[in-house]
Design brief:
Strand content: 15-25%
Structural class: alpha+beta
CATH class of the largest domain: Alpha Beta
Strand order of the largest sheet: 2-1-5-4-3
Largest sheet: 5 strands, antiparallel
CATH topology of the largest domain: Beta-Lactamase
Helix content: 40-55%
CATH superfamily of the largest domain: PAS domain
Shape: elongated
Radius of gyration: 58 Å
Number of domains: 4
Number of helices: 15
Distance between the termini: 66 Å
Length: 573
């Protein structure tokens, strides 16, 4: 059960007041009681010292009967019991009892203290009168030592009546003080909690969306500063809410106008937000709050999304949804453990790409036959023409061969892009590279280039298409030799988990930095004059990239113009 601040404050004050009151009663009563007993004892002591001079003559004359009569009479006048005892403890006179009937008083505390020379005091039960009494013993000196003790005593019940009256008075005073303190605490608690209640009421209104609330106060203490800070905070929050609302509306407008489908997920895979394009893709307008596997039930998508979300990384993949090809990109937001998936319809691009591939394939097939015929007739005519005409025929033949190479590369590239045409087998990468390097021994000797081959021992076998991997490394090694005039070619094979790494490095002319991002594009050449002189088609590195991707690998390049290039092929084993 929730208790209010007022009750807590008032209960605290109540506990403090109760503790102080009890403490005050206890201390004041005890102090008063002790002070009164001390005062009463001194009064008895003063009375005894005065009385001592009157009883000494009786003691000196050994008139103990006269002494007994005197103390009985005198005790009535002063309302005090009087007893005279000798040094042996024998009672000589007593104002209330006959001395002969009383027992020896030698070991009474007040008698012992008086016989030692001091004033004896004690409060104890008297077996003689069967009452609790206050005793004061006063020594009476003889010639050489204390010979007698004069004892005066009062009934404690008389003192208790006084203390009872005193206690009642103190209790009344304390109750009056407690009542005054409680009223003060009540007023103070209300004054303390009243502005807080106003702030709470205002906070509840703000929580419900009312930002027009304003708290006023007439106080001039710290609460005034608190109220001012609260009002200022509400104004700021109001401005921020209005700004955020405008920004949210703008963002929703922008996201709604985007053609790509957008779906934001929380850490559990539940949809936080989706735009209109996403609703059109899945044909469902109510996506918020659902899990992504309830929105898209494609096994290919679910397997990919689950893996990427588990690995907490960014990734993309093409997925078929209702006959359309979607490029899905997942971006993981690590700060919030959330993810955003975009769906871009690339069906038209895929159709155009397919038409382009089919066109290139068909044209290449159609060109291959006439180009082969032209080359054959050119070679036939070359032996029949005169020397001055052979130069023109040589140009025709050389360009025909280049066209044939381009057509062959286009056909091979088309074949590479068809993943289902792969013939997978276990490949010993070191043996494959050694066989390929033997092919280039003649070219290396012609250009006087040094070859360095390095391989880690006991490398695992590679699963892949042997013919396509041969074409990949043939292109890279051929380029390294083709564009290197002096120095050496380095081929290194090693394990770089989870890949096998093949590095092909040359000391050739290198590639300028501005060309590195585009060298894997089809028909892109760094220098057209250099490509013509080297006999390149502009498709070699594109073939290399596609073969690597076909095997689940990748190709990296590092190059410095004028110093050489380094191509690194990473293939999973």
């Amino acid at each position: 059960m929730k208790s209010s601040l007022f009750l807590k404050a008032f209960a605290g004050f109540l506990l403090i007041i109760a503790f102080v009151s009890v403490f005050f009663l206890f201390i004041s009563f005890n102090m008063t009681k002790n002070f009164y007993l001390e005062t009463l004892s001194r009064h008895l002591e003063d009375v005894g010292r005065t009385l001592k001079h009157k009883i000494i003559p009786y003691l000196e004359g050994k008139d103990f009967k006269g002494l007994d009569s005197f103390v009985k009479k005198f005790a009535t006048d002063i309302q005090t019991r009087i007893t005279v005892v000798d040094s042996g403890g024998k009672v000589l006179a007593d104002s209330e009892k006959e001395p002969e009937t009383m027992e020896n008083h030698r070991y009474r505390p007040e008698i012992l203290n008086a016989l030692e020379g001091g004033v004896g005091r004690s409060i104890r039960y008297s077996y003689t009168v069967k009452e609790k009494m206050l005793y004061v013993g006063i020594p009476i000196e003889g010639r050489e030592r204390i010979s007698y003790v004069l004892r005066l005593s009062l009934y404690v019940k008389q003192i208790d009546r006084l203390f009872s009256a005193l206690k009642t008075s103190l209790l009344r005073i304390s109750l009056l003080l407690i009542a005054i303190a409680l009223v003060s605490a009540l007023i103070f608690s209300r004054s303390l909690t009243s502005p807080l209640k106003e702030l709470k009421t205002a906070s509840d209104k703000v929580a419900s969306g009312d930002f027009l609330v304003h708290v006023d106060t007439k106080r001039k203490d710290e609460f005034r500063d608190l109220v001012r800070a609260f009002n200022f905070m509400i104004e700021k929050i109001k401005d921020l809410i209005e700004k955020i609302t405008c920004q949210k509306e703008e963002l929703n407008g922008i996201l709604s106008s985007i053609e790509e489908g957008i779906m934001a997920l929380d850490g559990q895979g539940r949809v936080l937000y989706s735009n209109e394009s996403m609703a059109k893709i899945v044909k469902n307008c109510n996506l918020e709050g659902k899990f992504y596997w309830e929105v898209i039930r494609k096994p290919q998508f679910l397997e990919w999304a689950e893996r990427v979300l588990r690995e907490k990384k960014n990734d993309s993949r093409e997925i078929e949804i209702d006959g359309k090809t979607m490029l899905c990109k997942l971006i993981f937001v690590h700060e919030k453990e959330e993810a955003v998936i975009t769906f871009h319809d690339i069906s038209k691009e895929k159709e155009v790409e397919k038409m382009k591939k089919d066109f290139i394939s068909n044209v290449s097939h159609e060109l291959k036959t006439p180009l082969t015929a032209i080359k054959g007739f050119a070679e036939t005519l070359e032996g029949r023409l005169e020397d001055e005409n052979r130069r023109y025929l040589e140009i025709i033949r050389r360009h025909t061969e280049r066209l044939i190479n381009i057509v062959n590369d286009l056909l091979f590239l088309h074949e590479v892009e068809e993943a289902h045409l792969m013939e997978i087998e276990d490949i010993n990468l070191i043996e494959l590279l050694k066989e390929l390097l033997e092919i280039f021994e003649g070219k290396l000797r012609e250009k006087n280039l040094e070859l360095e081959f390095k391989a880690e021992p006991e490398l695992p076998f590679l699963r892949g298409d042997r013919f396509k991997l041969e074409q990949l490394f043939l292109n890279l090694i051929d380029n390294a030799i083709k564009y290197t005039e002096k120095g050496k070619i380095t081929v290194e094979v090693k394990k770089s988990d989870p890949y096998l790494s093949v590095m092909i490095e040359d000391t050739g002319i290198g590639i300028a930095e501005e060309h590195l991002s585009r060298i894997f594009e089809r028909f892109y050449v760094v220098s057209k004059s250099r490509a013509r002189s080297a006999g390149g088609t502009g498709l070699g590195l594109s073939i290399v990239k596609h073969i690597a991707l076909l095997h689940g690998g990748k190709v990296n390049v590092e190059s410095v113009e004028g110093k050489g290039s380094r191509f690194t092929v990473l293939l999973p084993y």
